[in-house]
């Protein structure tokens, strides 16, 4: 007999919220993590992208919040503005059922506006670590009543760029505060660091949904100077409702957008140098289908849940296999079908072979030929079949 959310004895308001969103059965990570979190145990949770990790921690944690308290009771740390805002939005939908609220704390925006939101006494705060530490050090935020801290995208937050800030947050909460680390990938080094911040954590490695249709990984070989043209042809051929294209260099993002728009392929761009307002607007328009293509750096590689994304393209190779997994995870959310393409130069092929070996993913070569996406052998056969036959002329002598 399969598990239902009713088996977790969640409160009526949260069950109502799930019914309104037509969420009926828990995913594997939710099935494993929710009872463990309800028990108060510290935990390290690994589960593929798009499998419902956000609800896996929000449901049990929000369920036990004290509705009478005016203090911050739950902290969620995330690496990007976009992910913080997304988590806040999901949390608000659940908290509203209990007449409670959430607030987002991110860098790069007016601190005074954020402090005004904190005056409204949110029960949950989602934050980027750097800005949160700033407010902690200036004593604008108090965390002595926090019951749980969630480190989302833990493999990113425990690398050199964020680690010290995360450690500082953990140092400031109470010793018995529940500590939870969630990620699509939990390398041994991350597990070791997290274990230093959480006493005796349980380790969960959950699979994707059993009925998952799956994501197909493919690559196309292109010379460097023809990459943009290869991308244009691929996007036309795939003809998907929503595609995200990952690029490594910021200056290349706007160049690609300009070239695609020249060929009447509408798209938007997203990178760390764009303003918070521009990033929010680009994401909103992409979600609404105003623009079917989003060209971005790795700022959009983690956590963003846009169910309509049918295709991910690695225009440039990911810096490592974990980032490849996170980028690719923007499609195929919650077991849906998805397409992942890498546009690779001959010199970059060794990187894809390495990723395939490290992740266990089959990454197949494809060729665009005669309006189709074919295996190289199939493309040769089609070309041979369509090659015109030149008959020898017969010259008659008189």
- The separation of the N and C termini measures 90 Å
CATH topology category name of the largest domain = Rossmann fold
Sheet having the most strands? 7 strands, parallel
User: What is the count of helical runs?
Assistant: 15
Question: What is the residue-averaged pLDDT?
Answer: 88
| Sheet with most strands: strand arrangement | 3-4-2-5-6-1-7
**CATH architecture verdict of the largest domain:** 3-Layer(aba) Sandwich
- Helix content range: 25-40%
Q: How big is the Rg?
A: 24 Å
Q: Describe the oligomeric state of these chains in a short phrase.
A: single chain
Supply the helix-strand structural class.
alpha/beta
Strand content: 15-25%
Low-confidence segments, given as residue ranges, are 392-398
């Amino acid at each position: 007999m399969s598990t239902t959310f009713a088996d977790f004895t969640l409160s009526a308001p949260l069950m109502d919220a799930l019914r309104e969103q037509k969420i009926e059965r828990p995913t594997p990570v939710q099935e494993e993590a929710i009872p463990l979190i309800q028990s108060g145990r510290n935990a390290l949770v690994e589960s593929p992208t798009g499998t419902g990790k956000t609800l896996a921690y929000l449901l049990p944690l929000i369920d036990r919040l004290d509705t009478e308290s005016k203090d911050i009771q739950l902290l969620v740390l995330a690496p990007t503005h976009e992910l913080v805002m997304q988590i806040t939005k999901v949390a608000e939908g659940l908290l509203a059922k209990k007449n409670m609220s959430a607030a987002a704390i991110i860098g790069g925006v007016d601190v005074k506006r954020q402090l005004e939101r904190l005056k409204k006494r949110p029960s949950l705060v989602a934050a980027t670590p750097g800005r949160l530490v700033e407010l902690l050090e200036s004593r604008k935020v108090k965390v002595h009543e926090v019951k749980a801290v969630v480190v989302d995208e833990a493999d990113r937050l425990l690398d050199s760029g964020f680690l010290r800030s995360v450690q500082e947050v953990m140092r400031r909460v109470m010793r018995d505060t529940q500590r939870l680390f969630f990620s699509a990938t939990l390398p041994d080094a991350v597990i070791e660091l997290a274990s230093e911040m959480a006493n005796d954590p349980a380790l969960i490695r959950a699979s994707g949904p059993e009925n998952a249709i799956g994501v197909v990984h493919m690559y196309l070989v292109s010379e460097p100077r023809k990459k943009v043209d290869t991308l244009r042809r691929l996007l036309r051929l795939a003809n998907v409702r929503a595609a995200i294209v990952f690029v490594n260099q910021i200056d290349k993002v706007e160049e690609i957008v300009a070239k695609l728009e020249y060929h009447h392929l509408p798209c938007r761009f997203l990178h760390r140098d764009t303003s918070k307002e521009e990033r929010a607007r680009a994401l909103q328009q992409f979600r609404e289908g105003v623009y079917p293509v989003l060209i971005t750096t790795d700022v959009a590689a983690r956590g963003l849940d846009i169910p309509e994304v049918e295709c991910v393209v690695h225009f440039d190779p990911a810096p490592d296999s974990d980032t490849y997994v996170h980028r690719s995870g923007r499609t195929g959310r919650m077991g849906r079908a998805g397409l992942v393409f890498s546009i690779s130069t001959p010199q970059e092929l060794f990187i894809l072979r390495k990723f395939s070996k490290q992740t266990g993913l089959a990454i197949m070569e494809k060729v665009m030929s005669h309006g189709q996406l074919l295996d190289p052998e199939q493309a040769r056969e089609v070309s041979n079949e369509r090659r015109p036959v030149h008959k020898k002329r017969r010259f008659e002598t008189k």
